[in-house]
Amino acid sequence: MTWLWSLGKALTVVFWWVVLMNLFMPMTHPFRVLINGAGAALMVLHVLELLLFHVSLRGRTHPWFDRLQILLVGIFHVRSIPTRSVQESNNA
Question: What average pLDDT does this structure show over 46-55?
Answer without folding.
Answer: 93
